[in-house]
Design goal:
Helices cover 53% and strands 9% of the residues. The radius of gyration is 24 Å and the shape is globular. About 6% of the residues have low confidence.
């Protein structure tokens, strides 16, 4: 195999996370070097390959290293990460799951759609109560599409100086054009409302209006994910800025049971009645159910037990249900 072809094969394997193919091509490179008489180099390559394959020598970091990090003023406005959550790990309604799968399919078939003058969905508005999976959705999209996740820091975006917030927001949208990724704008419509002066509220509204203008004008390849807990109070004109609106709700008992099974599968006794436990979690969000499971696993660890108990799970679910009732009154 020619060296140029080997390099291309290595890069394709790396980009596709195909470890077996990457190792195979790397071994071919080492063999070629040995045939050329470069025995020392060939041995060094083989040693590196064996080191990479050894289970006892895992890589210190995942392959998707954070090569892209915001710099300069952008570092104050965006945080970057490479999440590792997958769609199959989420417990979602059939409708939400279908919409996310469609977004992923269209993104993966971007070139095919473009060839027919069509654009994939990439501007998403996520609406629903806290803890129902909106922020996690942005992480999952980034993982599935092998893209960095950039989260806008509204505490830095919103300032008390007239026009400065809008200027910073423009800087973020310039980043969308230069660095493809998933850009999350969490609670974008309500941030700043609790600030003290009337001027602060007015500045927040100006920034929100600027955000809506910029999102409408944006023609980058990045995904924009705007999340809000206040869908019922949004202006109907806002929705047309987005390619899709995905509505999240608290999980039903079937979804709660799936959440419990997913979280406790390694620590649950065989006779644990997940269906019965789900009754105690009615009305809780996805995140509250997960937190209750984690609390029960902590109980087991601290009690030097290998398995969680049904009593512990019920207690923590009821505690969170009680806390939610008090917060709603």
């Amino acid at each position: 195999m020619a060296r140029a072809e080997q390099m291309k094969a290595l890069l394709r394997a790396y980009a596709g996370n195909e470890d077996a193919q990457f190792i195979s091509v790397a071994l071919q490179v080492a063999a070629d070097e040995a045939q050329r008489g470069h025995t020392k180099l060939a041995q060094e390559l083989r040693d590196l390959i064996e080191s990479a394959r050894a289970p006892a020598s895992p890589r210190a970091k995942p392959r998707t290293l954070p090569l892209v990090q915001p710099r300069g003023e952008l570092a104050e406005l965006l945080t970057a990460q490479y999440p590792q959550q997958h769609l199959k790990q989420m417990v979602l309604s059939t409708e939400v799951e279908a919409k996310l799968e469609r977004v992923l399919l269209e993104q993966r078939q971007h070139d095919r759609l473009s060839g027919h003058g069509l654009s994939p969905r990439r501007k998403l508005l996520l609406v629903g109560p806290p803890g129902t999976g909106k922020t996690l959705t942005a992480a999952v999209l980034a993982t599935e599409l092998k893209l960095p996740l950039f989260t806008a820091r509204f505490d830095s975006l919103l300032t008390k100086f007239m026009g400065e917030s809008a200027s910073k927001l423009r800087l973020v949208f310039e980043a969308l054009k230069t660095t493809r990724g998933v850009y999350l704008f969490d609670e974008f419509d309500s941030l700043g409302l609790q600030r003290g002066s009337q001027h602060d509220v007015a500045e927040m509204r100006r920034t929100l209006n600027m955000f809506l203008q910029l999102i409408e004008q944006d023609a980058s390849d990045s995904l924009i994910v705007a999340a809000t807990n206040h869908g019922t109070s949004l202006d109907t004109a806002l929705f047309r800025r987005f390619d899709d609106v995905i509505r999240y709700t608290a999980p039903d008992e079937t979804q709660i049971e799936a959440l419990l099974r997913n979280r406790l599968s390694l620590n649950a006794p065989r006779d644990l009645n997940f269906s019965e436990l789900a009754h105690h979690a009615r009305g809780l969000s996805h995140s509250e159910v997960v937190k209750a499971c984690d609390d029960s696993m902590k109980d087991a660890v601290l009690a030097h037990q290998d398995q969680v108990s049904a009593d512990s799970i019920v207690r923590h679910l009821q505690e969170r249900s009680s806390s939610q009732l008090h917060s709603n009154h």
